[in-house]
Ras -like protein family member J (Chelydra serpentina), 160 residues
Amino acid sequence: RMNCKEEDDSSTDCSSNNVKKMLKCVVVGDGAVGKTCLLMSYANDAFPEEYVPTVFDHYAVTVTVGGKQHLLGLYDTAGQIDLRDDPKTLARLLYMKEKPLTYEHGVKLAKEIGAQCYLECSALTQKGLKTVFDEAILTIFHPKKKKRRCVTCHSCCTVV
């Protein structure tokens, strides 16, 4: 239910044409990977010039989808412990001979986990940045249908 009022407290038309739907986008990931810069670059159309600690809790931008305007709430999360200097983590990566993720491997992994798609972007250059958020928004309106893996299982989980 929504109650719309103008500044003079008189009621206004609350039809769906006048109400913007709020969409929520939460960015999660390891610490120091650029979540805050990604959000700030998208919201402000510019990369932050100085280091920005995670103080970008929430920001809202207006986006147009299918000719209709929506509010997109952007939510930042604090990253987890930085394990780049952890001896056990470094030894494990060395043992596994880890390399940077290739685009092809990203696409394959996205298919394996049932992701909508795999995209790459740069908060610094903004290359692919709008596409990442556009695809995330379109996924809200046109989600990929999940294949049912388990017909008799009652402990299945749906992630939205």
The first strand starts at residue 21 and ends at 27. Helices lie at 35-44, 87-96, 103-113, 129-141. The chain has one domain: 21-141.
